[in-house]
Amino acid sequence: MFERWVIGASHRSYPWAAPLGLDASLDLSGDYGQQWNSTNLRGLFVAPPSTFENRQQSNSETWRYITLVVASASLGWGRVRNATAIYDAMVLERRLLETGALARPLSRDGRQRLAEVLYLRGSLDTVRERPGRLLWQEIERVLADDGALREGGLDPYSVLRAAEPHLGPTRILTADGVPVSPVLRQTGYFVGLTALDAHRNLILRDDMGSSYETIQDGVSVSSGSSSASRRATFNSDVVYGGATGTMNRPIGPSWQFDANGDVLLGLRKEDNQLIFDAAASLGWLAADRWTANAYAFYRRLDDDRTEGATAGDSWQWTAGIRVSWYVEDRTAIELSASENQDWLRGTADAPSVGGTHHFFRGLDASLAVTYRFSGWIATPGFFPAPAGGFGTPRAQP
Predict the structure, then answer these.
(1) Number of structural domains the chain divides into
(2) DSSP-derived secondary structure letter, 136
(3) Structural domain of residue 92, as residue ranges?
(4) pTM for this structure?
């Protein structure tokens, strides 16, 4: 049995008017594992007029706990802003155009004002128990002032259509009735100097027991048992310093590009390492139907940067893509593929000579149909809905 948990918090502050920011983060994670083994052996030997029987039992329990605490602080230049509300405003406008609530597309100024209203959502949630009432008043006022709202205002169907989530089932709506994009849309950059401390705690525990018994002609002639246990704790601290950077950029209404990287040097004599990390992802979201994400990650470790090539040098590479297509509200077809590569120069007792490098490569691909159950056999997209109901809506999703 294996368990994993992760929790983290970060905060970036800009004390001055210039985009010079202070960033602090704390991340905690745990990887736990337990393994149980049990063996029972029984042997019978018959040599008339005698019989011999041997019985052996053994069991073991292995517990392995790894807890990691990483604290970092950075001083850097640049700002990263949340642009998700701009995308939410685009989706809201498109849906209202579909239902006929808008007589024409919004003007450039109207779109900007609608996005500004949606940026107030978090503030309204903290001061209002029912933030949707005030938010929708402002939305309707912006649409009317722009001259795009049709006569009569927003009808119930348009409001319900606008409140539907971007993807998947309706379930519980947001408190203000406006859906939130499942893809975080950020824009900007941040580059600076960083210091990082990583503390790792490893606990190993083994419990073992065994017993045996020899029986001759139904009489126990010898037996014995033994047990042993071991518990070991290992702690390590590594302190790094170096440079860090991140870049986030929306590409049009449906694409989002995010990248980050770090170059870290061990600051103590016993931490004489050089680590280079780089990661990038490209996300695509077409509300109500499609979502896709492509990602890549690369890490290189120079185990001893002052000694040239050493046995602990390694690199890792991961790349993949995931695409989901929602056939209906609760039914989705998902395709994913990924590649993993790991390279190690060699171990201490097998240095990198004569082709002793260690290389691993793995390819994975999957095609799945997922469904969130909402009844006994009512499966939209596979079984037709019962006749009757409320009729056909004026606009399809």
Answers:
(1) 1
(2) H
(3) 84-163
(4) 0.68
In a domain, 143, yes or no: yes
Average pLDDT value over all residues in the chain:
84
Question: Looking up tokens 């010898």, which residue turns up?
Answer: 222
CA dist 348 → 112, 217, 284, 355, 356 (Å): 61, 55, 45, 15, 11
* Range 310-337 average pLDDT: 87
Q: Is residue 172 part of a domain?
A: no
Residue 192 lies in a domain: no
Residue 327 dihedral angles phi and psi, to the nearest 5°? -65, -45
pLDDT for 311 equals 85
Three-state secondary-structure class, residue 47: strand
Q: Cα(first)–Cα(last) distance of the chain, in Å?
A: 43
Query: Alpha-carbon distance 12 to 39, whole Å?
Result: 55
pLDDT at 241: 94
pLDDT band at residue 381 under the 50/70/90 scheme: very low
What letter would DSSP give residue 350?
B
Locate all alpha helices (DSSP H) within 202-299, ordered by sequence.
none
Per-residue b/e over 158-181, b at no fewer than 16 CB within 10 Å? bbebbbbbbbbeeeeeeebbbbbb
Give me the percent of the chain exceeding a pLDDT of 70.
85
Tokens of 14: 């800009």
Cβ neighbors of 234 (< 8 A, separation 6 or more) are 200, 201, 202, 203, 204
